[in-house]
Amino acid sequence: MTFLNPALLLGLLAAAIPILLHLLNLRRLRTIEFSTLTFLKELQRTRIRRLKIRQLLLLFLRTLLVMLLVLAFARPTLQGSMMGSIGSHGKTSIVMLIDDSFSMTASDQEGEILKQARQAALTILDLLKEGDEVSVVKFSDVGRTSMDQQHGLSHDPQLLRRAIEELKPTPVHRKLAEVLRYSARVIAGSVNFNREIYLFSDFQRGLLEQSVSSILTAESLFPPEVRFFVLPLGKRSIQNFGVEEVTIPSAIFEPGKPFTVRARIGNYSGEDAQNHFVGLFLNGTRMAQRGVDLRVGTSSEVEFSVTSEEAGFVEGFIELEDDDLEQDNKRFFTVYLPERISVLLVGTEPETRYLRLALGTRQSREGSVFGLQEVRGERLGTTQMQGAQVLVLVAPEDLSPAQSGQIAAFVSQGGGLILFPGSNVSPERFNTPFAAQLKLPTILGVDGAIPQSLNGNPPSFVEFDRIELRHPLFQGMFDSPGQPGVPETRGRQQTVESPRIARSVRFAPSAQSNQIITLTSGSAFFLEHQSGSGRVLMVAVAPNLEWSDFPLKGLFVPLLHRSVSYLAGDQHQNTGHLAGDEVSIRSTVRTPGPWTIRNPSMIDVAATPVSRGVQQSVRFGETESMGLYTVRAGTSVIRKFAVNLHPDESNTGPAERSDLETVFRRVGIESSSVSFIDQPREVQRLVLESRLGVEVWKHLLLAALAVALLEMIVARISKQELTPVPS
Q1: What was the pLDDT predicted at 455?
Q2: How far does CA 93 lie from the centroid of its chain?
Q3: Dihedral angle over CA of 524, 525, 530, 536, nearest 10
Q4: Within 10 A of 97 (CB to CB), how many other CB atoms are there?
Q5: Same domain, 548 and 581
């Protein structure tokens, strides 16, 4: 047993007062005058014995009453563990983990949840003794190497109090497992044996999503002597709808042409919703609005088709009606509508003739849409590729390994590439090193025209077999003769005039490739391949009349134009990074001096780009604000990107305690080391009880009251015994 007010134990000396009074009463003689012995005869021996016993009982009860009162005020505690007495006197190291995500801005009957967390944390500070040390860690600081030095254990209570009072909500979302791993590193810096970790959070389900499943094997991060105090805050269910995701499917992005925006809306309100309004804005103007029905606990997708007449970077966002958590009602995105596309045509003059003519026919009011430059294959280098958005390459098999590596870097960093085989293509030279470095489908061989048969029939040719009309390259190009919604149909000759193909290369099938057009021979004529951050479109015929009459067909020019626009427009589309993430910003335009990145608060941050191959790049980590960021080189805008809230932040339902315990167990926290404190106002008392044991002063007061009542009863009986019986 431990006493929280041991100095009051000196009051036990008062227990001697009833004994002294009893002894004094025994020594004091009383003279009673009486005329006869009648009274003495009435006092029988047994009655005198009972009287003495009652007097001793009264002495015991009065002494016990004094002792119980003194012990109650000394606040004794029954130890809950063997380390209780050490915890009461030894130095303590404390790590406070405070959830500062946007879900903590919701309110219940006790007020804002984050404010409750601050008050509970300040209450813990009031328990500090000399020599104790504390670290205050916000959830948003986890995973940021720049904050590691700021989370050392501190002995300055004023500094700690100021850090807690100034704590504000942020859009940065962290998982519980990440936070616990980080706290293990912080508490490991303590030399004190008595160590405690406090968790202040609303413990929404989104905090645990992926936390349990991501921990495949149990970890041993905490020694058994570390105690955990978990404070689940927020007693009211939150009515919340959230924009969980915005996607922009690949398309031909041009001013005046429609493109699709899809949004996924989640319902965490606890009840179904009908006709919930969803609005789409471009450059601050509402462009569309729809009502969507949302079943409770599920997500629904809503799709918009919008058009912007403005070229360049278009800013947009999806917005919902107001609810209990406003921060996830808006999700930002950017769309790039190129006004002029830089194209680099690579190959010899005879091989690029038809390509040059086709690319030169695309005109706008300001002139040619394509800024076309040409270079022979042997002269291609990093300098020529600088500033290019799309490469149109003929005879890649003639390039050197160094040139193949430069093109691979260009594509992996987001550049677009259109490939045509050369007239004298060699599968071996194409496959190694070119296809190997870009991780492209290899060429199995070259299919030629079937020779004239013995019966004198003319040689046969292969033609188009299937066309994937749902691909963005064909959207709006021509009407589908088949049923709506059917992606592929045989016999497209009614709509698409197929070329007669005498020779073609046969590509090896690849799981990463999408066959857009196939031939009657079963091989691919036109396919798409993702390589790093860029895309590659591969054509199976050389761009000349010896291989096919494709350059003379009506499909040749629009397909080439749309391919260039498709590859260029896809480079800049961005539906959002997550708050707190590091963003990689790249540009093929070489600019002298630093870049300027303006955040949503209109604050400019200077960043020095690093040259990598044909591009310059910057890694930017100051993304703690939601909204749109603008990257400038001088006065030119080279990039815009959006930063949004993590979609799991919308999942505001309370997590099951069993799921919390599962996460604790998998990072090495024993259930016996965890104390759940459901009443933040009782945090001081519960923490002290956990450190020192359970206080029993209330029980002692009740016992003292019972002893006092018993003493009154015994005293009254004794008084009646002393009263003479009238004769």
Answers
A1: 47
A2: 29
A3: 150
A4: 26
A5: no
**Inter-residue contact 3 to 74 (CB < 8 Å):** yes
What strands lie across the sheet with 241-247, from one edge to the other? 241-247, 259-267, 299-306
Q: Where are any strands of DSSP class E within 283-397?
A: 285-294, 299-306, 312-320, 330-337, 341-346, 363-364, 367-368, 370-375, 390-394
State the residue range of the domain holding 589.
577-644
Six-digit token string for 710: 């018993």
Measure the CA–CA gap between 547 and 265, rounded to whole angstroms: 51
Q: Which range has the worst mean pLDDT, 154-168, 366-380, 486-500?
A: 486-500
User: What is the per-residue pLDDT for 469?
Assistant: 87
Among 465, 439, 419, 422, which residue's Cα sits nearest to residue 560?
419
Of 460, 517, 514, 470, nearest to 490 (Cα)? 517
**What is the sign, positive or negative, of the torsion defined by CA atoms of 657, 658, 662, 665?**
positive
- Model confidence at 30: pLDDT above 60: no
Q: Please identify which residue in the block is written with the tokens 């926290």.
A: 669
Domain assignment of residue 727, yes or no: no
- Token pair in block for residue 597: 């990145």
Task: Give the whole-angstrom CA distance, residue 380 versus residue 403.
Answer: 7
Do 555 and 428 belong to one domain? yes
Q: For residue 283, is pLDDT > 70? A: yes
| Beta-ladder partners of 503 | none
Which pLDDT value is given to residue 86?
A: 38
Secondary structure (DSSP) of 136-192: EEEGGGTT-GGGGGGGS-B--HHHHHHHHHT---BS----HHHHHHHHHHHHTT---
What's the mean pLDDT in 699-716?
A: 83
Q: How many domains does the chain divide into?
A: 5
Render pLDDT for 116-126 as a digit per residue (tens, 0 to 9).
Answer: 999 999 999 98
CA distances for 262 relative to 247, 278, 468, 632, angstroms: 5, 11, 21, 28
Pull the structure tokens for residue 133. Answer: 């040390």
| Statement: residue 485 has pLDDT above 50 | no
Alpha carbon distance 624, 577 (integer Å): 11
Does 351 fall in a domain?
Answer: yes
For tokens 């070489």, name the residue.
590
Which segments of 275-430 does DSSP mark as H helices, in order?
349-359, 382-385, 401-412, 427-429
